[in-house]
Specification:
alpha+beta; 2 domains; 11 helices; elongated
């Protein structure tokens, strides 16, 4: 009897879980694809590289969507059971709300395991691979964008004119370069020789000039300073090339758990970078627990409402999901400043969900309605 009941509830949860996860990922992906698609036109990214970028972003998108998907799937399933009076029939047969929890716990545990795996391995790998691919694109852009005896702009705000360019050793001869990235000044570099060098570890491209002159003019061009040099390095970071999606240094979201722990141990000053890394470590465990609790919260919420159809499930799930992420973002910002310890701030949203889960479950088990939900979605009398 119980096995049949649990199997029946599982079959009610899996379809909306899969559907909601696909929809959430698609919505987040659509927003990112708009930015990535601009690279095809503006930065010469080919469709295969674009697909690679999208695939690297998917683990992080799934981790973002899992809490809402778990909540929505369980909510819709129990909302349907409540709307069809099946919850009442089970209670009449002596089956309490707690006795139908095992399939929900199983689903929530599977989602917790998936979230933990993505949080510890999938998302950092995807973020790092994405940035590495961006660096390779920028590196090839530097090689392909520079043409001999033609004014070219391989990087935004940096114009090249070279007499000769050797793609093999990436050297340039008789260089004229205008750097307009600084809004307060314009730097014009004239050199006999230069070389394009890549530093993959820091994702920086360096143009090393030899034997030349720098002309620095102010914004109003009222005066011009001249500097002679034997050796000069012009640094071009990925944030100078594609500022919307890249960063110059390896961010905590790209680090493995071991790298984050080593970074915390080697950091003497507890500054903003230390707090950011500590917050990232804590969130890699707190977010999977939030996914687990989101699934459990869907049971009392769905069992309390019988009106409104699936639209109610979508609205209520989205509101709870939004409240959680607002708290998560708020305490993340506070924790990174050091006002509240990241070890505490990252877990406050989880404790909020835990308290809400216990409170809602006890009320639902005692068949006591939730006043706020009852006001907006009155329970239909049967």
């Amino acid at each position: 009897m119980k096995f049949t009941l649990h199997k029946y509830i599982l079959q009610e949860i899996w379809p909306p879980l899969t559907a909601s996860l696909v929809v959430f990922v698609f919505i987040v992906l659509a927003a990112r694809v708009i930015n990535i698609s601009e690279w095809v036109v503006n930065h010469g990214v080919n469709p295969l590289q674009m697909l690679g970028m999208i695939s690297y972003l998917i683990p992080g998108m799934i981790l973002f969507a899992l809490p809402a998907s778990a909540l929505m799937a369980v909510f819709i399933a129990f909302h349907r059971l409540s709307g069809d009076n099946e919850i009442q029939a089970l209670k009449s047969s002596g089956i309490s709300l707690y006795q139908v929890l095992p399939p929900v716990v199983l689903i929530s545990t599977v989602c917790f395991g998936a979230a933990l795996l993505i949080s510890l391995i999938g998302a950092p790998w995807g973020n790092r691979s994405f940035k590495d691919l961006v660096f390779r694109v920028a590196q090839s852009k530097a090689d392909l964008g520079i043409q001999e005896r033609v004014f070219s702009e391989p990087f935004n705000g940096v114009t090249f004119y070279v007499n000769s360019f050797s793609a093999g050793d990436r050297t340039i001869q008789d260089v004229f370069l205008v750097d307009r990235r600084d809004p307060s000044s314009v730097n014009t570099i004239v050199a006999k020789e230069g070389r394009i060098e890549s530093r993959p570890e820091s994702r920086i491209i360096t143009v090393r000039f030899k034997d030349g002159t720098i002309f620095i003019s102010g914004k109003k061009q009222a005066e011009v300073r001249t500097i002679r040099f034997d050796l000069y390095d012009l640094t071009i970071g990925l944030d100078d090339i594609m500022p919307a999606l890249t960063a110059r240094q390896l961010s905590p979201k790209e680090m493995s758990l071991k790298e984050l722990v080593d970074s915390l141990r080697n950091t003497k000053n507890r500054d903003a970078e230390y707090h950011e890394a500590l917050m990232e470590v804590m969130e890699r465990f707190s977010i999977p627990f939030a996914v687990f609790l989101m699934g459990l919260i869907g049971v009392p919420l769905g069992a309390q409402l019988r009106a409104g159809g699936r639209f109610v499930g979508i609205v209520v799930s989205f509101v709870v999901f939004l409240l959680y992420y607002l708290m998560l973002a708020g305490f993340r910002s506070i924790g990174e400043t050091g006002v509240v310890s990241p070890a505490v701030g990252s877990w406050i949203p989880v404790f909020f969900l835990l308290f809400g889960c216990i409170w809602l479950m006890r009320r639902a088990a005692k068949e006591r309605t939730i006043n706020i939900l009852e006001r907006f979605f009155p329970v239909q009398e049967t």
